[in-house]
């Protein structure tokens, strides 16, 4: 029962699953004015509607898009069509899993200004030389905005242990422990990305909780994607006594039982080459089958937010020492990378040129980029924000490719020139970033190969600048 002003369907009044009298054949549907046949596009196989494998509806069938020539301009059109913000990355190689059925599009060549993907130039419908291992994907900026929480564990020592609470009608309430069992707890741990259920230790007390009890007689099979999908009494109907609240201890709370993970040689602790600690040594992860779901677990383990990209081929430089993990297959619900299925510690046929990387949204300072001392917001000296200070970028290797990325990230069009500090000054002289190497197609500087922070090797001591096409 919706009023019509709610921002999400889950904010409307409903009955818990299993308490209705509805049967198959009475499923509800929607037709929106902005989605005519032939123009429909969707992103699938990820936890956000604004990131995933690109699929397009044509001739009454959904099909995929080949990654030949797939770039950020193509991704920009998809993000605009879905009202998902700006394109952050355009991963190929089926990083969101392989589709099936027909491959509708290939060799896409969007300018970035089209309203729909089908407006872009490309090969004729269904004509391609691809297989589903080349399915294209998109990550839009709205995908890194966390969705409002509707489930939490309260009053524990870690986010993965505590009293179970659910949000309903904008109020947090407890869950009664009548019939509460391992299957119910498994759903909670999986929904929160907290791994597996651990046996609750005797004497654990997570407090009495809020006065409102929203759910009672919860009965999950253990496979449901969310606690509210399990059978239960109607919302708010409970005979639960005071203090009889359900609680959970998930494996994610036992941090010491997991192999530690870190991201190195990147622009901060939330982006870089993936390394895991095993047998008293740090080692890397091979990029065979490395994808967004694997990267999601790394971001969760490090409390670094959502995934922005999962770069491969030693994007953050080659590591040293052992290669500990290969052929990683995560479900996305694990609390740590070492909980995911792999070939086993040290079993691989890889070289360090295949080291896997991750960029998480927690690297928020990477998005803090500005142009200063120019005549308008789209020209000037390039500065990034780090360690509570603005600093420049060294001009060693700085050219139009890098300037294009800066202009694109700032929404200033293409670059007209890659100027030095002789034109825009040096500021206080601080240089944060050195040795930038972009192809020119990246959506933001953090996707380029960059040496961070400080500029001990900056030979020129000159600050990079740009003039973008959108400059006055």
UniProtKB/TrEMBL annotation:
<dbReference type="GO" id="GO:0031638">
    <property type="term" value="P:zymogen activation"/>
</dbReference>
<feature type="disulfide bond">
    <location>
        <begin position="407"/>
        <end position="468"/>
    </location>
</feature>
<comment type="function">
    <text>Binds to extracellular matrix proteins. Binds to pathogen-associated molecular patterns (PAMPs) present on the cell walls of Gram-positive and Gram-negative bacteria and fungi, behaving as a pattern recognition receptor (PRR). Induces bacterial and fungal aggregation and subsequent inhibition of PAMP-induced cytokine release. Does not possess intrinsic bactericidal activity. May play a role in the innate defense and homeostasis of certain epithelial surfaces.</text>
</comment>
<feature type="disulfide bond">
    <location>
        <begin position="220"/>
        <end position="230"/>
    </location>
</feature>
<feature type="disulfide bond">
    <location>
        <begin position="2"/>
        <end position="12"/>
    </location>
</feature>
<dbReference type="InterPro" id="IPR036772">
    <property type="entry name" value="SRCR-like_dom_sf"/>
</dbReference>
<feature type="domain" description="SRCR">
    <location>
        <begin position="151"/>
        <end position="251"/>
    </location>
</feature>
<protein>
    <recommendedName>
        <fullName>Soluble scavenger receptor cysteine-rich domain-containing protein SSC5D</fullName>
    </recommendedName>
</protein>
<feature type="disulfide bond">
    <location>
        <begin position="189"/>
        <end position="250"/>
    </location>
</feature>
<keyword id="KW-0964">Secreted</keyword>
<keyword id="KW-0732">Signal</keyword>
<feature type="disulfide bond">
    <location>
        <begin position="330"/>
        <end position="340"/>
    </location>
</feature>
<dbReference type="GO" id="GO:0005886">
    <property type="term" value="C:plasma membrane"/>
</dbReference>
<dbReference type="GO" id="GO:0005615">
    <property type="term" value="C:extracellular space"/>
</dbReference>
<dbReference type="Pfam" id="PF00530">
    <property type="entry name" value="SRCR"/>
</dbReference>
<feature type="disulfide bond">
    <location>
        <begin position="394"/>
        <end position="458"/>
    </location>
</feature>
<feature type="disulfide bond">
    <location>
        <begin position="299"/>
        <end position="360"/>
    </location>
</feature>
<dbReference type="InterPro" id="IPR001190">
    <property type="entry name" value="SRCR"/>
</dbReference>
<keyword id="KW-1015">Disulfide bond</keyword>
<comment type="subunit">
    <text>Interacts with LGALS1 and laminin.</text>
</comment>
<feature type="disulfide bond">
    <location>
        <begin position="66"/>
        <end position="130"/>
    </location>
</feature>
<feature type="disulfide bond">
    <location>
        <begin position="176"/>
        <end position="240"/>
    </location>
</feature>
<feature type="disulfide bond">
    <location>
        <begin position="438"/>
        <end position="448"/>
    </location>
</feature>
<keyword id="KW-0677">Repeat</keyword>
<feature type="disulfide bond">
    <location>
        <begin position="79"/>
        <end position="140"/>
    </location>
</feature>
<feature type="domain" description="SRCR">
    <location>
        <begin position="261"/>
        <end position="361"/>
    </location>
</feature>
<feature type="domain" description="SRCR">
    <location>
        <begin position="41"/>
        <end position="141"/>
    </location>
</feature>
<feature type="domain" description="SRCR">
    <location>
        <begin position="1"/>
        <end position="33"/>
    </location>
</feature>
<dbReference type="GO" id="GO:0004252">
    <property type="term" value="F:serine-type endopeptidase activity"/>
</dbReference>
<keyword id="KW-0675">Receptor</keyword>
<feature type="domain" description="SRCR">
    <location>
        <begin position="369"/>
        <end position="469"/>
    </location>
</feature>
<feature type="disulfide bond">
    <location>
        <begin position="286"/>
        <end position="350"/>
    </location>
</feature>
<keyword id="KW-0325">Glycoprotein</keyword>
<feature type="disulfide bond">
    <location>
        <begin position="110"/>
        <end position="120"/>
    </location>
</feature>
């Amino acid at each position: 029962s919706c009023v019509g002003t709610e921002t999400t369907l889950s904010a409307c009044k409903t009955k818990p699953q299993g308490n209705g009298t509805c049967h198959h054949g009475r499923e509800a549907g929607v037709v929106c004015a902005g989605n005519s046949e032939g123009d429909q596009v969707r992103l699938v196989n990820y936890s956000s509607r604004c990131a995933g494998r690109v699929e397009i509806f044509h001739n009454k069938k959904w099909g995929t898009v080949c990654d030949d020539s797939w770039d950020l301009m193509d991704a920009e059109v998809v993000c605009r069509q879905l009202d998902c913000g700006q394109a952050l990355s355009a991963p190929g190689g089926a990083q969101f899993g392989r589709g099936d059925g027909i491959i509708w599009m290939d060799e896409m060549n969007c300018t970035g200004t089209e309203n729909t993907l089908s407006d872009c130039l490309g090969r004729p419908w269904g004509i391609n030389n691809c297989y589903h291992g080349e399915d294209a994907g998109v990550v839009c900026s709205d995908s890194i905005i966390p969705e409002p929480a509707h489930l939490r564990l309260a009053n524990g020592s870690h986010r993965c242990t505590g009293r179970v609470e659910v949000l309903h009608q904008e109020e947090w309430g407890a869950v009664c422990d009548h019939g509460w069992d391992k299957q119910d707890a498994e759903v909670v741990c999986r929904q929160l990305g907290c791994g597996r259920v651990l046996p609750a230790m005797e004497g654990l007390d997570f407090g009495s909780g809020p006065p409102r009890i929203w759910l009672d007689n919860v009965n999950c099979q253990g496979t449901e994607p969310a606690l509210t999908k399990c059978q239960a009494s109607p919302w708010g109907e409970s005979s639960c006594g005071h203090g009889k609240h359900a609680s959970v201890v998930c494996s994610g709370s036992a941090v010491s039982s997991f192999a530690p993970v870190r991201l190195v040689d990147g622009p901060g602790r939330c982006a870089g080459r993936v390394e895991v600690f095993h047998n008293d040594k740090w080692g890397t992860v091979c990029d065979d089958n490395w994808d967004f779901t694997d990267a999601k677990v790394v971001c969760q383990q490090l409390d670094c937010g959502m995934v922005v990209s999962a770069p491969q081929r030693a994007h953050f430089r080659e590591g040293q020492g052992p290669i500990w993990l290969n052929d990683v297959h995560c479900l996305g619900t694990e609390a740590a990378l070492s909980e995911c299925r792999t070939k086993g510690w040290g079993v691989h046929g890889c070289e360090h040129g295949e080291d896997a990387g991750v960029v998480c949204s927690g690297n928020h300072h990477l998005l803090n980029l500005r142009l200063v001392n120019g005549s308008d917001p789209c020209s000037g000296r390039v500065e990034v924000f780090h360690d509570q200070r603005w600093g420049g970028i060294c001009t060693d290797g700085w050219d139009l490719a890098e300037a294009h990325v800066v202009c694109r990230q700032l929404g200033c069009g293409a670059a007209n020139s890659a100027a030095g500090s002789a034109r825009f000054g040096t500021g206080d002289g601080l240089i944060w970033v050195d040795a930038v190497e972009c192809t020119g197609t990246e959506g933001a500087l953090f996707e380029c190969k960059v040496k961070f922070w400080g500029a001990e090797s900056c030979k020129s001591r000159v600050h990079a600048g740009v003039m973008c096409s959108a400059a006055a």
